[in-house]
């Protein structure tokens, strides 16, 4: 086989695959129920939040309006056509009426125009104008919606990164263990059992408290994910190992071995591809665990720290019943968490129904 | 195992479980919780945040243990929280003689321990021996050590204690404020070397022998500590009536402040110290809840940004980090002082219930607080001008550099778990950003922070608070250049700057004068120096409030503690 | 059966050593030790801190301290807490009881709700009821337990029906036996609901899929073919077999429950093992941390063991020999 031919074949193959992917996505989309479609769209929106935060968020998430702490969400009004040159929508600015109670009144004499696609934002107000808080402000007068949008970066990525780690770790260890069998297998499985018998939450607490201090927020974030992944890979590895062990006896693997395939070839060409579909479905189902885990850690003060925003640490402000009672919009990040988790659950459940061989019945 | 009918077994199990659940649910719905009538039983309920660590007053190092033992034991003198001056306690009088180098205490004759034994000078001497024992680590010994030597005490008779000092030492009255132990009960255990395990929290309360206003009756870990009044307490009211007037006290152990707030609202506790955001709702609900909300005063502590000027942190391999230059440059520090938005912090973090802090001594320390300092007002324009004039110019849009052209970037930290501190740091960071100074903020958990401050010295700027006491020499470890808590450059072999040498000198001088009013000028001068040199930048002090049942009488809280707590009682209905 | 028990308990020993060593090493990796709690107290001099370090043996090497701790465990001594100066068992005992009560009661609640709902939903697969309950269960799975706990506190506050926080009333000690039980139950209701409801959703989903799977199994088809009435098939064949995995689940579910309990405990301020451990880690009270971790591990292992034994009791196909060879 000469190089050119190989090249052409590879290109054809890639094109076919592309077409195949597109077709597969279209087919899946048609097969999905309404809830699944909605979930997929919701997750897409959240990932857009994460990827394009500076555009979606109307303001800098760190900007403080120090005279407007805990301001309630503002209502949007449609502007009369005569004002359309200044913006289609407007809100009445809020004025702090009782600073001790943080009670606000609308100032009906003035209008803040909210402009769409303005100054590089999806929507925002003119530079000198009073702010428009779509979802209210938090206790330093920062725009809650902007913080939620930026918080999506942490909260939506934590699951992907965590699953990527535990997925690759679990699949490698599990497939290797299943392929080897014998003493190696049982030694590895005993290790997994230790891991699974760890009182995981307690252990997580102990580990999260160990994170070294000099690290940046990003590094801390990755360490937290790594710890969570480290705690959860073992169960996963066990399942994969079971599947790998059953594949090991399958005729085509026997054949590959008889043909003198090396161990690593066996592992990567035959065993892992056989279990990967199932593993992927399982992985997607474990994403919500990471989102919830992050918010639980934030709640205990061990998660993402203050200047950075995550949905968990935004919600942790609601820890105090006072805040819930007087500033209920502080619970909004909790809705985002629940929505994301629910969407992942719907999607994962759907994928399992369609792709998990053990669920074929 | 025999195979009976498995299905039946499952059914039976399920039925049992259901029945159990039903019983539990039914009980739950029918519990009639009789409102414990605190007024009728004259028992005051309040909350504390954590379990005590010990009931042995000498071993106390945490505030919970101090609260738990506070009412059971007493010291020779006490402080009147209204005047901040000393008053008689177990000693009915004392006098200085021999050029203030001898202090004689005359003990009360009418004090009895709860097992009936009389209180005598022997108890005082025994307690001092325990405190000075190197095998018994405790928090009293350092304040009772003068120039590296212990205080010599003797007892010419059972009711006189004579203390001899190597030199006049003004803080001696405050040093002698340790809780007295019963020698007759503990000497045996002490001689046997068991003192560090004696009177731990697993001791049955009736084995604790006290002489204070209250005696412990019950300790349920993680739940409560209960006390009854000491019928033989020595103090009498103005009509000769017995004190204390309350028949009992209960400290509930409630770690979570939110839970404390809810319990106060539901009437489980009678006293509550609200956070700033709770003051307004409590005032609104005062009538409905039958409570009084009262302002207590200004926080006695000090909360400040400290800047690391420790050469051990900045000089690595002969290269000096530019940050050392910035933080020792008084112009740079002055600009930063003008960038602290104290009013913003007061409004945002304390709901307006705080005051700007100017000096490191709280205005509540009426004698030693220097009222003549002029605050650095929040003015970013002025801050920028000071920086420009001192050569810190903008090198790029939004980035300011030092005269050598290094961009101004430093790290800021504080301890985790205190939202107010997070917020204050966020405010400071934002304002410095406007000046072109980048601050990387990351809070650390308390112990990690302590390690950075006292051994690795790896920090740039920290927001940290110290509690305040009336005796100004208590801050010695913080103010003296040789002190371990001299946070910006601890444990210096000799003072690094002339003004630190001057503070050391003033601290020495200040301990030589016994009269508080004559002492005060030394400490005023120290506050002025800190204010001018700015190794630390003060922030704000909260204004504290207390809420209590309106049936409580003679309840006079102050920032230094309750005034005449023995007089507190519930009004008869 | 004795052989089985002996084997299982023998296996536990290396497990416990492994887990405790990891925890011990992790605790030693954190900068600072217990004594650092006091370092910022101006009343305590560095010499005193040194004395304390020596008193607590914190200046010794890691391995020595671990072996010494293990030696204590072998003699059933958990060590002395640094912060409280008493045997760790005095601190852990009452908290373990609270945590176990909470975990068990919420487990019972979860089962009582999840099993019948799961059955109903499975029997009426794809009906409106199924869809509605499935949707609700997804909703339930998506609401974090601590979020429910917030709402529960709010509800308790608003209604005044339930005590807020704590596991018993302050005057508990002065009550008679029945009032004590009632009082504890009263304090247990809200946390149980919070923790239990969070589990209902996932357990119900599992129940449903389990039943659906068995419904199509060969032996069920055979039973139907025999002409047995549908209800007999359902109760005798389907349910009996669908229940078995749940018995195993119960043991492993304990881990989640203990974890979830820790979080709910800290939000609702209940004196349980989780809160104790969290504070101990913060204070670097190593003996207390180790004691709590050990307790958690033992609870978990014993839970698993009990679940396996229960499985033998209910499932005729499983006996101790098959469990051992598994």
Can you offer a commentary on this structure?
The complex is a heterotrimer of chains A (361), B (573) and C (326). Chain A has 2 domains: 77-124, no CATH class; 144-359, MetI-like (MetI-like fold), CATH 1.10.3720. Chain A is an alpha+beta fold and 361 residues long. Chain A is built from 12 helices and 6 strands. In chain A, a hairpin with a 2-residue loop joins strand 5 (112-118) and strand 6. Chain B has 573 residues and is α+β, with helices and mostly antiparallel strands. Chain B has 19 helices and 29 strands. The longest helix of chain B is centred in the first third of the chain and has 25 residues, at 6-30. In chain B, 47% of the residues are buried. Chain C is an all-alpha fold. In chain C, 77% of the residues lie in helices and 0% in strands. In chain C, helix 4 runs antiparallel to helix 5 (128-142), helix 5 (128-142) crosses helix 7 (177-215) and helix 6 (145-159) packs across helix 9 (230-268). Chains A and C meet through helix 5, helix 6, helix 9, helix 11 and helix 12 of A and helix 1, helix 5, helix 6, helix 7 and helix 9 of C.
Main features:
heterotrimer, B: 573 residues, alpha+beta, four-stranded mixed beta sheet, 19 helices, 29 strands, globular, disordered N terminus, C: 326 residues, mainly alpha
Name the quaternary structure.
heterotrimer
User: What is the overall silhouette of chain B?
Assistant: globular
In spatial order, strands of the major sheet of chain B run 22-21-23-15-24
Largest sheet of chain C, in brief, is: none
Topology:
The complex is a heterotrimer of chains A (361), B (573) and C (326).
Chain A: H1 3-31, H2 34-51, H3 53-56, E1 77-78, E2 89-91, E3 94-98, E4 103-106, E5 112-118, E6 121-125, H4 144-180, H5 182-197, H6 200-208, H7 217-248, H8 251-258, H9 263-299, H10 311-315, H11 321-326, H12 332-355
Antiparallel strand pairs in A: 1-2, 2-5, 3-4, 5-6
Chain B: H1 6-30, H2 38-41, E1 43-48, H3 63-70, E2 77-80, E3 85-88, E4 91-97, E5 102-107, H4 121-132, E6 145-146, E7 149-150, E8 152-157, E9 160-164, H5 172-175, H6 183-191, E10 214-220, E11 224-229, E12 248-253, H7 257-265, E13 271-272, H8 276-284, H9 286-289, E14 291-298, E15 302-307, H10 311-314, E16 315-316, E17 319-320, H11 322-328, H12 330-337, H13 342-350, E18 354-356, H14 380-389, E19 394-396, E20 399-400, E21 409-413, H15 419-434, E22 438-441, H16 446-456, E23 461-466, H17 476-479, H18 498-510, H19 516-533, E24 536-538, E25 540-549, E26 552-553, E27 556-558, E28 561-563, E29 569-570
Parallel strand pairs in B: 1-12, 21-22, 21-23
Antiparallel strand pairs in B: 2-3, 4-5, 5-9, 6-7, 8-9, 10-11, 11-12, 13-25, 14-25, 15-23, 15-24, 16-17, 18-25, 19-20, 26-29, 27-28
Chain C: H1 2-29, H2 46-56, H3 62-74, H4 88-123, H5 128-142, H6 145-159, H7 177-215, H8 218-225, H9 230-268, H10 273-283, H11 286-314, H12 320-325
Helix pairs in contact in C: 1-11, 4-5, 4-7, 4-9, 4-11, 5-7, 6-7, 6-9, 7-9, 8-9, 9-11, 10-11
